[in-house]
Specification:
alpha+beta, three-stranded antiparallel sheet, globular, seven-stranded antiparallel sheet, 39% strand
């Protein structure tokens, strides 16, 4: 196998492993955690993305993989929470984790996180998309 084919196979293997890990996380096996900087409230996590209390994750719609430019994580969830409350939660929580921005768009180092409401065949869902900048 050529070096290029080997690198592609290795990247695919890592991508599949990352996707399986995020599905395990979303499925509820490792969602409870408390980040070092967020001392006042416990959060659920999918990978290292905080998940607001009351959100119902749609695991079959999400995915995660590592690309040559960085990781890509997509999480879909439903909630009855108000948009202002959601943005306030993420604004406060993400700031404690070193993210800057607001109104659904945050950046940290070489990554960006976009949170917004999207229409799907299941109705309106919230999408959290972590990707390279």
């Amino acid at each position: 196998m050529s070096l290029s084919c080997h690198k592609k196979a290795l990247a695919l293997t890592y991508g599949i492993a990352a996707a399986l890990m995020i599905l395990m996380l979303i499925d509820g096996q490792f969602l409870i955690g408390q980040p070092a900087k967020a001392e006042t409230q416990q959060h659920r996590w999918a990978g290292d993305v905080p998940i607001m209390q009351g959100w119902q994750i749609e695991p079959e719609l999400g995915f995660a993989f590592d690309s040559p430019n960085g990781r890509v994580v997509m999480i879909f969830a439903s909630t009855s929470a108000d948009e202002d409350d959601i943005m306030a939660f993420y604004g406060q929580t993400l700031a404690q984790l070193g993210w800057t921005g607001g109104a659904g768009n945050w950046v940290r180092d070489a990554e960006k996180l976009v949170i917004g409401k999207v229409q799907t065949a299941r109705g309106a869902l919230w999408r959290l998309m972590l990707q390279p900048r």
